[in-house]
Each structure stands twice: as C-alpha cells, then as structure tokens.
C-alpha cells in the first residue's frame, strides 16, 4: 500500500521555529515528499496535478511543529471551497483506523462516545478563506471559554472523529451539542509565494497576493506535545515514541469548487511519526561540551603548575643568608 508505514522523524530543535507561515527557519530539518492521490480511490492517474506535498516535523521538548508545503496557483475567495484547505489526522483510540476516519461502524444516528469508544481520531482542519497570510490562528480565548476546539476567527479548527459521518469540534457532539471541556490547542499560519507578509497584512489587503500566480502554499502548525484533554479527543505525543499520522489537501482543480470528500492524501494508511529524543545538533554540542571540559581541566592543571613554580621561586629568592656576628664587629 502506498507509503504505508513510512516514518517521519521529529527532531529536537529548540528555540528556532516561529509560527508565521514561512519556511526560512526550517532549513536544518529533514524534508519528506509525498505524492497526493485522491483519498477515496488512490488513483495515481488522477493525482493532484501540481506536485507533491513536502512535510517537515520538529519539536522543542514542549511543542511539536509541522511544516507542509504544496505547489499550486494562488486562489483566494470568500467561498472556502474555491480555495486551498489542509488537514492533519492522528489516531487516538486503540482501534482507530486510517480508513473511515477511525472506523467506527455506527451510523450518524447512533454514534457517540460510548458506542464508538476506541475509534477516536484527532483532527486539525484549516480553511484559509477567513485567515490573513502570516497571521496566527487556532487557539483563542473566546472559543476556549466556550469549551470547544472551534476557531471562530480563522477556521483553524481542532476536532475529532469516529468515522466520516460522526465528527465535530473538540467539546461538541456530531449533532452540534456543546458538551464543553474541549479546547483548541493548535496554533497555525499560512502564506503563498505570491503573498508578501514582511510588513504585516490586514483584511483590507485582500486578496493578499496575485490571483492565479504560480507558487507554493506553506502551512505551519504547532501544538503542545501533551494537552489537558479528558474527552479522548487529542493525541498525546511522547518523546521517544512513535505515533500514527496522515495529511490531506483540498484544492479547486480545474476551477471547480471541491466537496468535502474530494481531498488528496499522502498515503493509504497511517504514516509513522517518531518523536526523537535528541536532535542533529545535540551530538556536536555534546562533543563541544566535552572538548571544553577537557580544555578547562588541562588549563586548570597548567595554572596550578605555574602557581607552584612561581611560589617556589619567590620562596627561594626571599631567603636571606645567615651571617654570624663576630665579636670584632661590636
């Protein structure tokens, strides 16, 4: 099966990544490239025509970071289905399958936290028609106070699913009842090659870039490795462990608005995401630290030797020869 079990590695990269929708601070992180085939058919003959999705993952010991880049002409429209959208999916329950978004066999009228227990998948879904390039979306106080994972401002939503017909925001049932206890833990931003975010964009700058201009979409996300989720709706990442994940992309190919089921996927099953304990920079730092320690020890020993030598010479030079006083000198 295509890309089944392919492993991505999230290395430890502390203090170097800013969530601004730009890739300039990701140069040291390994890139993984995936063809985008239709999720329902996996037909390579109808793959996303503009190219592959590139994914990079890193962590700083507290948060995990994702960078996703997809080539495509720039689209911006008030209707989100005429624009690009992106999603990440992670298994939460022990029985959660990639196929059918968790694989719970219950219908939309009977699925609930009890009948579908163990089939939970964690979802991030970002539709960019309300989001200004380079600005931060996702986690916000207003929606957190409501106890849901919804993003009312930029549509970077934190959700869950048991199957394609039973999904919702964290803290809300698939039928729309707010149960509370949910929270949007994601932060994210986006840009396109045609957008210039150097001086900061505002809503009045819409459409923010050259429509139909050639370039690449860049999506950047971050979330704490661990959350306070008590609803079985968030994946809990652990350093040193491997987790399942997948990514999907929506785009209005040939100018036609997409439908929810018309998305492209990076694989036919879960990719493997390994959270690495140490990063590429740590071994060299450790070697540098060891070298400095050895140098410090040698320097201290040399200093001690010099101090002993100087002390001995001073002691020798300060001695005065004893001359007895003769009786004739009195």
TrEMBL record:
Lineage top rank: taxon: Eukaryota
Transmembrane feature ranges: 291-312
Cytochrome c-552/DMSO reductase-like haem-binding domain segment(s): 24-250
GO molecular function: heme binding; metal ion binding
Keywords: Electron transport, Heme, Iron, Membrane, Metal-binding, Transmembrane, Transmembrane helix, Transport
InterPro entries attached to this UniProt entry: Cyt-c552/DMSO_Rdtase_haem-bd (IPR019020)
A Pfam family matched in the record: EB_dh
Record's protein name: Cytochrome c-552/DMSO reductase-like haem-binding domain-containing protein
